[in-house]
């Protein structure tokens, strides 16, 4: 007993000492615990928000719950995904067709939720491919990529895919100016031959289907980001551009010469009117439109050959340029639509423009000149004011529901909270490290849910257990419900979390699809009853019409395949309950595996190269007898006369 | 952090436990209620069929509809005369009540969770049955087909 008392006294003394050395650990601990409680979502409970993070170089979208930071799903978009056969199965391959052929990867930057009346509506998520210029649409009922539109006359689709307040249009603008139309010219003829383009894509209000509406021929700058006007500025679209120097080598130095570059203000309602009057020129172009037909459960590709081009110098009032310090990234419109914030990444101020002053400047022709026939508005005439010395490297701004703006600063690695009206900085918080974009759910819409801010960071050295030279990037959740910002949570992300969108969960939950009803499955190779499972030979093509249900395939013994055959396994998952996928994989398959949802049909192509007997099996743990879910394919030499045969139900 | 974290978690746990509610006690299964009057069969508590069905003679048209649905949605796992993934169903209407069969089709998850007779089958067959997205009307048609298959008239 006495012994124990001594130990307790010693422990007590030690913790007192530790307390003295660590400053005020009790307060720090209480703060940590408070933060932990704020992000704690009990097992079995749902998060309050969905966050859709782009994967940057992963070409995907990752979906997280907030505030917990739990990873909910990774949606393959531009990158093939052998895990579930996306981009490998015959049904999904057409989605990745482009004018350059099949492109199995890309660099995905900016997710954008569809909006109704200026507020995210939980229907679709758009995302841009920065490399081979495309816009993809993801259906949030299924969390699947269902459409892909290639953008012609573009060198890389960066300023994209931002939407108008009722998702009338989704836009694209080229990061790299290129010869338009493309042709073989010396690079040093940049100023004569290289141009930029801005593209408006019409979105069908019912189906979400995209259709390239028009392009605008722009000066040969680099176009970076964009946002639509709303409320008072509805009908306008704003694009940031850098490299107004029109440099074509060592841009790091040569594109940073001028004090100011530009924000391009586009009157898209006027463009719509011009198009309806038949204005604009028909230009030849080559681009692909690919879409997934959910009934047929198959993607289709169409090659298109024409666009309508509007040249601003022929259409006064269509485009204006507004000077913006310096090499701007973000161009962000506040919820009222009156203030437009430029994120000049090399600037020492944040310029805030006033939409009403821009309109006045246009009326009074307060121009300082023109570029390629586009009037340049005087900086001061459009400016509401500048935030002085806000930090280093302002990139991107979003807004809360209490009238504040939050800007990310890459160089000084922080988030700064400020007031767009008074231009005063009211708070700042460090990020770990080197923040790029930030996201507030609904923070670029008319009605932000101003509770959390997600900082997306490029550098994470020393933040997590080390994993060799290559480290994951990160997101940090910041509480913005009070006057002072507070860091709550820090979690690693997939690829580069370049930008994100957030939405209150209910709007997405209520639209969820749980199965594909077999009755609606119009896949030409679907088998809806086990009795109809079969194998058919057409020349050297063999089509296996297979069913899967817990826990067997039908047929599961197939003979009469020959070396030189091309075998298509069309596998229909006959399950009709939520969360019962089956996998399909065959030994030596050089393609991928399949992951087939309930009621879905997917097709795997297989070309056996050697005689033998090849096992196939289910790769997704489906039941207690999952390990028994297997079969064999017998492959005979080319020219063999082994007859085509397979087993029937009950055999 | 960790030393203080535990009490906080315990506190949370305490609050959660103090909130009452939780899962309701299971209803006693079948049998009598002590007065000699038969209690409601348990299957009436598990699924959309909550009252005894009044069945007339077998309706051949309905049975034919049921056969089509049965072949589409059931035969991957159930044959009439042989043990397959699940039990043979030729005489199921002689073994089980119509309400049991309907609720098994319409709410297999609930039945497997709560009904002791179904739990015995899960232990024997080891593959759990899932919902096959059939409506109540379709389940009724399947029942009619099974009655006909059993030789009921």
> Beta-strand percentage of chain B?
under 5%
- Compute the gyration radius of chain A: what is it? 28 Å
Specify the CATH class of the domain at 59-153 in chain B.
Mainly Alpha
Terminal residue distance of chain A? 75 Å
Please name the CATH architecture of the largest domain in chain A: 7 Propeller
Number of folding domains of chain A? 2
Query: What's the name of the CATH homologous superfamily of the domain at 59-153 in chain B?
Result: Cytochrome c-like domain
The chain-level structural class of chain B is mainly alpha
Instruction: Report the top-level CATH class of the largest domain in chain A.
Output: Mainly Beta
Number of helices of chain B: 7
What name does the CATH topology of the domain at 59-153 in chain B carry?
Cytochrome Bc1 Complex, Chain D, domain 2
Based on CA atoms alone, the radius of gyration of chain B comes out at 21 Å
Oligomer: heterodimer
The largest chain-to-chain contact, stated as pair and per-chain residue counts, equals: A-B, 30 and 22 residues
> How many H/I helices of chain A?
8
